[in-house]
Amino acid sequence: xxxxxxxxxxxxxxxxxxxxxxxxxxxxxxxxxxxxxxxxxxxxxxxxxxxxxxxxxxxxxxxxxxxxxxxxxxxxxxxxxxxxxxxxxxxxxxxxxxxxxxxxxxxxxxxxxxxxxxxxxxxxxxxxxxxxxxxxxxxxxxxxxxxxxxxxxxxxxxxxxxxxxxxxxxxxxxxxxxxxxxxxxxxxxxxxxxxxxxxxxxxxxxxxxxxxxxxxxxxxxxxxxxxxxxxxxxxxxxxxxxxxxxxxxxxxxxxxxxxxxxxxxxxxxxxxxxxxxxxxxxxxxxxxxxxxxxxxxxxxxxxxxxxxxxxxxxxxxxxxxxxxxxxxxxxxxxxxxxxx
Length: 340
Description:
Elements: E1 3-9, E2 14-19, H1 25-31, E3 49-54, E4 57-58, H2 70-74, E5 77-79, E6 84-85, E7 89-93, E8 105-117, E9 121-128, E10 139-144, E11 149-154, E12 163-169, H3 175-182, E13 188-195, E14 207-212, H4 217-229, E15 235-241, H5 250-259, E16 263-269, H6 288-291, E17 297-302, H7 304-317, E18 323-329, E19 334-339
């Protein structure tokens, strides 16, 4: 038996290593040619200090307080030279991946299917030469054939599958949208990743997912994982779009509601002329109960104005979520962050 350890670097690159029972993270990383920061390797200098975001572990008692204080231990800080995992873990490493002589993985992908959702979005699936390991919510860079350029998209499928899917906004005149209009089944592309600090953390309290347009994609991946685990925490999703035709994959959400008894969702459309029952923005449909007096982990994926509006809404309402993770995207880029 081994444990899967996700090393999430400062530049958003994630690398996975396996750690044997009783093996220290630093030793496991070196064994797999990832040079995590270190100096003494004896729990004395603190150079290898990182933060464990998810998982169980033992730090022993061989390190000194100058290297890792009790307050830091309570905040999830660890010394990788002393940390022995007792479960799968996610570790935030406070340096770029290049510093540790590692980087993203590259893998080949073959177009398996393309589903068009009117003029709003396209759902594309790829068969991969290897099942990518990623954290639910992360993204990859997909090379646009013939352009020499890449575009970033979040997985909508769950980790560990050899068929990966993505929900891509249709952008008239856009580089990726233009290729998708002429893409053929069995055409090959390359991907690099996984990337991003927007991913599902350990579930300790109710979850509130806020999706704008094709920002629904990472939540589909998260919901797959939650359903597979039979998670019992309350999960609420508010899915907002601009036009009626932008509201896609609602059937997938209904299927998750059937699989996850504690999952519920609301959809809304901003267009004042909509025939949809809920008109307006996600901030107008955020019931007090889903905020749970702030004892909630909020995940938000949408365009920059939506991210800014939600942050302002929380401030105006005097609500500070236990944690707030967001990803804002433009047609060409993804930016992830954490707040509150």
